[in-house]
Amino acid sequence: MDVTVIAEVSDGSLHPVTAQLVGAALSVGGSPTVLCPGGLGTSEASTITGVSKVVSVEGDCFKAYDPGAWSEALEALTEGELVLASASPSGRELAASIGAIKGIPVLQDATGIESGFTITRPIYSGKAIEKSNISSPCVISLRANSFEDPGRDGSAEVSTVNQSGNLKISIKEALSKANERLDVSEANVVISGGRGMGDPSNFEHLYEISEIVGAAVGASRAAVDTWEDIPHSMQVGQTGKTVTPSLYIAVGISGAIQHLAGMRTSKYIVAINKDPDAPIFGVADYGIVATWEEALPVLKTELSNLLSN
């Protein structure tokens, strides 16, 4: 079965979720072809285990992100019964557009694919899991860390194709991010603080740990609503960002339903809270009943020692 994977690129290089999409294709017996928009990440994509071929899709329309033009250019190269994209904002947008152009079903935010195209995904703010049978051909966007990375011992052939798309967006001015810190939606490790941190200045302790392990720093809605210094861009939850990192560390977060909706599909969850009855412990793989003042210095020391050896 032929499967087309739309590569996800971040800051000019291949995002780790691309390899996970390949892993998803392999799990259903697929032979994946990876399309690299703008030719970015082709060398990295060719080394992913199991990739049959890589196509560097180049053209003027890829100089800046234009979802309509990108979809037109990429759709012309999709083949097979299944098209996979990341469930990132741009990935979901491309999945929907490609599905509309091809006139085939689209399913977003999936966390599992079984043979026969039985798709699983969380619904009702993560309180239930939906299983759907979807006909092929179809387009599916997958959440990060839902499938294993198959490794890097591949040597797929790379070809280049020039494609054009109907540009509808022009860039008048490019502005740099106000904050260059790692975004919670892109991180493999996330450490988040809640109102239990006591003061926004105490988030500096989270940033120190994030520097050690290469994590992004997030926050609960309560923290964002309480302190102006904690921006909404850090918010994890139903009204913030949904994250699926390999490791999620919740510090001083009680575990309101809307917060759990944004992080409960993380691979491993560690909760630090002084209240042993906090709901966050109900979804945590590991729990530490302690104040942040007691736990974070020890965590910082142990992580530093672990990673220095």
Describe the structure.
The protein is an alpha/beta fold and 309 residues long. It folds into two domains: 2-162, HUPs (Rossmann fold, 3-Layer(aba) Sandwich); 189-308, Rossmann fold. Helix content is 26%, strand content 27%. The protein contains eight helices and 17 strands. The protein has helices at residues 17-27, 42-46, 67-75, 89-102, 203-213, 221-226, 257-263, 292-308; strands spanning 2-6, 9-10, 13-14, 31-37, 53-58, 82-86, 106-110, 112-114, 118-123, 128-133, 138-142, 157-162, 189-193, 216-219, 247-251, 268-273, 286-289. The chain is globular and about 55 Å long. The termini are far apart.
The backbone outline, from C-alpha atoms, is: globular
Profile the largest sheet: 7 strands, parallel
**Total number of helices:** 8
**Total separate domains:** 2
Task: Just give the CATH class of the largest domain.
Answer: Alpha Beta
This entry's quaternary arrangement is single chain
Compressed to H and E, one letter per element, the order equals EEEHEHEHEHEEEEEEEHEHEHEEH
Fourth-level CATH superfamily of the largest domain: HUPs
**Strand line-up in the sheet with most strands:** 7-11-6-1-4-5-12
Radius of gyration: 20 Å
Strand content: 25-35%
Spans of at least 5 consecutive residues whose pLDDT stays below 50 are none
- The CATH topology name of the largest domain reads Rossmann fold
- Structural class label: alpha/beta
Put the structure in a nutshell.
This protein has 309 residues and is an alpha/beta fold.
Topology:
Elements: E1 2-6, E2 9-10, E3 13-14, H1 17-27, E4 31-37, H2 42-46, E5 53-58, H3 67-75, E6 82-86, H4 89-102, E7 106-110, E8 112-114, E9 118-123, E10 128-133, E11 138-142, E12 157-162, E13 189-193, H5 203-213, E14 216-219, H6 221-226, E15 247-251, H7 257-263, E16 268-273, E17 286-289, H8 292-308
Parallel strand pairs: 1-4, 1-6, 4-5, 5-12, 6-11, 7-11, 13-14, 13-15, 15-16, 16-17
Antiparallel strand pairs: 2-3, 8-9, 9-10
